[in-house]
Recover the amino acids of this structure.
């Protein structure tokens, strides 16, 4: 699928009812109802607090693809993208889309952790990370996913997540806008035939992304953890791909990245539908840089600071804390680190030019401070979004 087609398909099928980062079950219910006349909708379980967990089944082909989003409740970008995808599959006028629906049956769980989504937290209502519950299956959400996995018997799995703004694509001044992983399936991280197929899918997606966000795609370390869902499903010899929606310049609502995820999902599904995957080309997976933690949201460089009885020229790192305030998501600036940060990058950088930097109370700035603005010399600088 060429880039212009991918961009046009997103533009014409974007789900306008979804926007921003705070997406929970009340946003999804009318959309699931909208699609119920055209797709098979099933309730596969309930959350700790009794919210239904739904799956949307699309297509009639023999190749089965299972994807799930918002396993972590505060990772909503991929949820927006899969609903965009549902709109596309509901309008199958494009021949390439028709071919996908004939070749594949796609099962989408748009929100596995509705309680965490409502509270805007990574964990479920019992404060359990569902992505570390693949063996214990101690939570109803984990049981719902595993039970459906066993029943559906997928040929491929897509594990859909979001990542923080701290990640760089390697050790360079480029954010990890999209990241992937072909999870390990054993302690030795063996590059099995199964993993080669997952890697080849990632290579295909990466080629498209490099046309738009060069050097802004990363991969995660593949250290094996059988408690993670992706590692577990990979160990069952089901090619599994982890997707991570990351940061693009100024895109704190993750609307730009939403399109990159949409494109990547569509490329992966089309590749699966139109080819006999054997892992060919997987070697290029190892050319994708591994993510590193090299970014802060803001760095104030060359700040004059009084530490004890001594003045020093240092850098100030500020990170936004994503916090629900009266059911609205706020990005609250917090001083994370004061140090020599020459090995780190800021999504936004301010040069203090060795002027004194004070907090909003005109006091010495300190780690842990939360401020909407700072004083640099005699000037006020806003640091809110």
């Amino acid at each position: 699928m060429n880039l212009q087609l991918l961009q046009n398909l997103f533009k014409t099928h974007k789900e306008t009812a979804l926007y921003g980062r705070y997406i929970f079950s009340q946003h999804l219910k009318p959309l699931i109802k909208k699609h119920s006349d055209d797709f098979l909708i099933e309730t596969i379980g309930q959350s700790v607090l009794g919210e239904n967990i739904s799956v949307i089944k699309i297509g009639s082909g023999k190749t089965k693809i299972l994807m799930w989003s918002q396993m972590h409740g505060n990772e909503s970008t991929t949820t927006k993208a899969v609903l965009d995808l549902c709109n596309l599959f509901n309008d199958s006028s494009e021949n390439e889309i028709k071919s996908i629906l004939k070749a594949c049956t796609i099962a989408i769980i748009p929100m596995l952790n509705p309680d965490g989504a409502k509270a805007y937290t990574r964990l479920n209502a019992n404060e359990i990370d569902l992505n570390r519950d693949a063996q214990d299956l101690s939570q109803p959400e984990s049981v719902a996913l595993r039970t459906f996995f066993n029943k559906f018997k997928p040929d491929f799995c897509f594990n859909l997540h979001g990542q923080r703004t701290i990640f760089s694509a390697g050790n360079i001044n480029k954010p990890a806008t999209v990241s992937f992983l072909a999870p390990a399936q054993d302690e030795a991280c063996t590059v099995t035939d199964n993993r080669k197929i997952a890697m080849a899918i990632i290579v295909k997606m990466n080629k498209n992304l490099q046309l738009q966000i060069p050097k802004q795609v990363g991969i995660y370390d593949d250290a094996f953890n059988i408690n993670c869902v992706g590692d577990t499903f990979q160990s069952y010899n089901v090619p599994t791909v982890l997707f991570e929606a990351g940061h693009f310049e100024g895109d704190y609502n993750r609307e730009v990245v939403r399109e990159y995820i949409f494109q990547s999902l569509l490329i992966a599904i089309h590749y699966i539908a139109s080819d006999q995957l054997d892992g060919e080309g997987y070697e290029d997976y190892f050319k994708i840089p591994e993510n590193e933690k090299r970014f802060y949201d803001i760095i104030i460089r060359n700040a004059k600071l009084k530490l004890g009885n001594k003045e020093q020229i240092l850098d100030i790192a500020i990170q936004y804390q994503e916090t629900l305030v009266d059911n609205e998501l706020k990005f609250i600036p917090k001083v994370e680190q004061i140090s020599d940060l020459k090995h780190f990058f800021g999504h936004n950088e301010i040069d203090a030019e060795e002027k004194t930097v004070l907090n909003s109370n005109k006091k010495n700035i300190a780690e842990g401070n939360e401020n909407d603005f700072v004083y640099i010399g005699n000037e006020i600088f806003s640091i809110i979004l």
